[in-house]
């Protein structure tokens, strides 16, 4: 059946191009939170001609013409070439030679319709109404032959297509009711049902439309239809029409997952943990919207559970429990899910109920109850094992597997783990969420939005306390609760990125010895595999101008002398420990020199320096927090007070003037230049710290010998426009 499925959106109404509107697409995670029944799958189609059509004509000519010749005919034939008998395709020549006039007449009409439809589609992009006269004439000229004719079903199908294009949906339904009993089951009849489903959709008979799309395996049309039916009002209408229809199941599971999306969109902190989530840029919803949606749904769920005509009350009781827990009513949710467990439902509904029950117990866990924790841990382990078995399928994101094949994986990866990340954020339990994310990453390394990946996060975005807690969890699992033991055992933590993360965090805090301890624990091979590593191989020992960045200089990969691993970050920490100690232990002008060298090392390792990769994995001059450059600025401010030599003092002040700082109106470092409305590049306004340094430099200017300082454009402009005019006044 599915092999002949046809996509309504592709051919049913081509005058309304899909590019002009939103269309939900199939994905394994469309139903992560709530899955009652599978979304069907649209199989790949031949690009131009349906397999079913070619197969029919191959049989019609008794296999005397090749399949490829028949397919080529339908790809290239025109109405003119057929009507004038000038087409030289072997298939058409066979029909002419054997006097198959009935078949040729049908092909004329069919090709004429296709050409008229294509022209009408092209016209739909213009600011004029498409010409339907050709389609109307074709429809009027179609005569359905006798049922005994081999072309009987073909003509009925053509008539349905033409009337569909003309939006005569009542006639489409009439043709089906009149002739379908005489058409045998098979691929052609299934294609006809696709047009019938489209007619039902436009007649707002959604129940029958959804049933047809589901049976035909037409995911695109089904999802398009469902996208217009989210909400309790539509769900209640479908329920009144037929409480046991497949349409009710589809819309109910769509609605439950919609509630989850409301929760995601409200939780801005979710963006931290799941940077690639497809819903992260959606409109932010208010909590009251989620609560009010849930409150509107609960009476319908109660009504359905009390209705003796409902064949599967389990799904309604589960949905009620889901909505209650989404509202934060944990005790009521537990009672509702306990009731659901004793009601009738399909196996898919039972599996869904068990997953939802785990989520409810997980989110309302009494952490001090060891017995309860052990019970939830056992069920989490079982879910994790099932998810791991489905992960290879989910990793390939196949289009030919229904969601049930990866239901446990998507529930864990796209629902339970994000839920934990949202609810544990900024709490001592966030380390648990990080471990859960690592568990997902461990079973599917290709996942891009369902786990914490410290290698891809800037230092400023790392949750310091949670990573420290995660290290503590890994150091002594015996102290953990049963649930945390289960989560940690499934995480299979790779300690290298965790050590690296804590090292970066401690480095940003100025705790060089602690940072060194973490960096020295990292496997050298892991270090050599990091994306920033070649950059450090090229730049680490290259001559560098203190407090100046060579943004425009290209990297020379040929300058890499050895592929062997080197722990550059550990080296930096040792260097900073020495420089800090030297600065603290000296006095007088020696202290000024030591401070300059210490600050230069900090600056070069900061987001603004050439060696940014020593302190971070993500270079950007818009890094929200650049603690090393700020520390360098403070060191320079202290050092300049010990400088007596004017040139040395000028060098320190020039260095201080070159350190950009976050703007007061946001937390981002400004670029050194900005583009004016006239298209010219101008320097950004110096910060207060930079201005003070410039003022000191201006006073020292006659004594300064350093050509770099004397050639500074910003300093020259500042002196010419501010200092000198003020001095003259």
Largest sheet: 2 strands, antiparallel
Distance between the termini: 92 Å
Strand order across the biggest sheet? 1-2
**Structure class:** mainly alpha
- Which range best describes the helical content: under 10%, 10-25%, 25-40%, 40-55%, 55-70% or over 70%? 55-70%
Describe how the helices and strands are arranged.
Blueprint: H1 8-11, H2 51-60, H3 67-76, H4 79-83, H5 90-97, H6 101-123, H7 133-140, H8 152-165, H9 169-179, H10 187-202, H11 206-216, H12 219-227, H13 232-241, H14 246-266, H15 270-273, H16 287-306, H17 313-326, H18 330-341, H19 347-363, H20 370-396, H21 407-424, H22 430-443, H23 464-475, H24 482-491, H25 495-508, H26 512-519, H27 524-528, H28 533-539, H29 568-585, H30 588-605, H31 627-639, H32 646-657, E1 673-675, E2 681-683, H33 688-700, H34 707-710, H35 713-728
Antiparallel strand pairs: 1-2
What does this structure look like?
The protein is about 60% helix and about 0% strand. Strands 1-2 form a two-stranded antiparallel sheet. It is built from 35 helices and two strands. With about 725 residues, the protein is mostly helical.
